[in-house]
Write a structure and sequence with these properties.
Layout (H helix, E strand, L loop, with lengths): L1 E9 L3 H12 L4 E4 L17 E5 H10 L2 H7 L2 E3 L1 E6 L5 E5 L9 E5 H12 L5 E4 L4 E7 L2 E6 L4 E9 L6 H5 L4 E17 L6 E6 L4 E6 L5 E8 H9 L2 H12 L6 E4 L3 E10 L3 E2 L2 E3 L5 E2 L7 H21 L7 H30 L3 H15 L2 H11 L17
Parallel strand pairs: 1-2, 1-11, 2-8, 5-13, 11-19
Antiparallel strand pairs: 3-7, 4-7, 5-6, 9-10, 10-11, 12-15, 12-16, 12-17, 13-14, 14-15, 17-20, 18-19
Helix pairs in contact: 1-4, 1-8, 3-4, 8-9
């Protein structure tokens, strides 16, 4: 089989599926390649232990793509407040949607819910073809575009390929794009827990010596935890019995949500700071984790990836309306200029925060908590950080402003 498309998207997670949806709404002939078709329905328990804190900007984008109703039907959990504590220094931050014009600060959503709803939309778009299973073995480029050969011998051609295939991106490697980064020596331990006290639609985060412990509210009353730990500690905690783990978690939470009553399956994943040295190559653009991996302490990784998706889709559709070639390099240069700087600022901010809270000297601890108190009692500063966390920034793609780009 040798078929040509305008755009090929490799990777059908939330970022790749969002790109394909946006382009499909604009009538672009798209092939979406992934190793497997995602589940679209599942039993009510257990919940997916991988969740994302989606910002207001991400919700606006997903509404425009038509995915939000399918997500709401499967369950999303609005959080209306956020409370952040410095366990060592006593500093505290409190953000409340009552201080904004919105009814929530964001939503906690299982990753599988977002992906399933996007694939629901993809199934309705005539110009999009989803091809599974698909694994790219080779990539060739010339002046006309790019050809991908799969490991089963199939060949697909396009003007442009978008790599949304994760932090170990095979497409990035095939294009010869290197990465810069480092391991944190930390793992993020994730699980779903039941607590004595209600989460009160609040996202709780407590900064401890090894890293932050976050309780993210779920629609069924439980919480998803994301606990940053030294890698050796995470390994020990994964091996504990449920009862012993709950005891350790309860102590670490300092009673924020009362007794820890039950815990589901646990997993841990290594934390890394990583960025691609270039976001583009000939006829290729990187989006999401293929382009950048950041510390999860503020939950911005998925949102940054969705902004990548919105930006590249907007540029492609604008280029197409102007009847210019999608194989041209000006499209790629514009995308890299738009997204790389914003992502590096966000990544750098997360890195500095993680390192700052990891320093345990008495002097810095006092300064850190004093800074938190200043922000908490300065309306202008607090409003700025609140809106930034909600994704309401300048230079957003149209979709993230709640406007179609097709």
């Amino acid at each position: 089989m040798n078929e040509r498309f305008e755009v090929i998207v490799v990777g059908g997670g939330m970022v790749g599926a969002a790109v394909a949806c946006a382009l499909g709404h604009g009538g672009v002939r798209v092939a979406l390649l992934d190793k497997a078709e995602p589940a679209r329905q599942w039993p009510p328990v257990p919940l997916d232990i991988r969740v994302s804190a989606l910002t207001r900007a991400s919700r606006l984008m997903l509404e425009q793509l038509g995915a939000w109703p399918g997500m709401a039907r499967r369950d999303v959990s609005a959080y209306r407040e956020m409370r952040v504590f410095d366990a060592r220094g006593g500093g505290e931050l409190h953000f409340d949607c009552a201080d904004t014009e919105y009814n929530e600060l964001g939503h906690i959503v299982e990753n599988r819910v977002t992906v399933a709803a996007l694939w629901d939309v993809l199934s309705t778009l005539d110009s999009v073809v989803c091809i599974t299973p698909a694994k790219v073995a080779e990539m060739e480029t010339d002046a006309e575009g790019v050809r991908l050969r799969l490991d089963n011998g199939q060949i697909f051609a396009a003007d442009l390929v978008i790599a949304a295939d994760g932090h170990d991106s095979a497409l990035r490697a095939l294009a010869g794009i290197g990465v810069t980064g480092w391991d944190y020596g930390q793992h993020g331990l994730v699980a779903t827990v039941s607590t004595e006290l209600s989460h009160r639609a609040t996202a709780w985060q407590r900064f401890l010596d090894e890293g932050p412990l976050a309780f993210l509210p779920l629609a069924n009353g439980q919480c998803s935890i994301v606990w940053t730990l030294r890698s050796d500690t995470a390994k020990v905690y994964l091996a504990l019995s449920d009862a012993d783990f709950l005891a350790v978690l309860e102590q670490a939470s300092a009673g924020l949500l009362g007794d820890m009553l039950a815990v589901g399956p646990r997993a841990a994943f290594p934390l890394r700071f990583q960025y691609a040295n270039g976001y583009t190559a000939e006829h290729l653009a990187l989006v999401g984790d293929a382009a950048h991996v950041m510390h999860p302490l503020a939950g911005q990784g998925a949102n940054a990836g969705l902004l990548d998706a919105a930006a590249i889709a907007e540029i492609i559709l604008e280029t197409r309306r102007e009847q210019r070639s999608l194989a041209g390099c000006s499209l790629l240069r514009r995308y890299e200029r738009w997204r790389k700087g914003d992502n590096l600022i966000m990544m750098g901010s997360m890195d500095v925060l993680n390192r700052t809270f990891g320093i345990q000297s008495a002097e810095l601890t006092g300064l850190r908590s004093a800074g938190m108190r200043v922000i908490n009692h300065t309306e202008l500063l607090k409003s700025y950080f609140n809106r930034y966390a909600m994704g309401l920034r300048d230079d957003l793609p149209s979709l993230a402003k709640g406007k179609p780009c097709w």
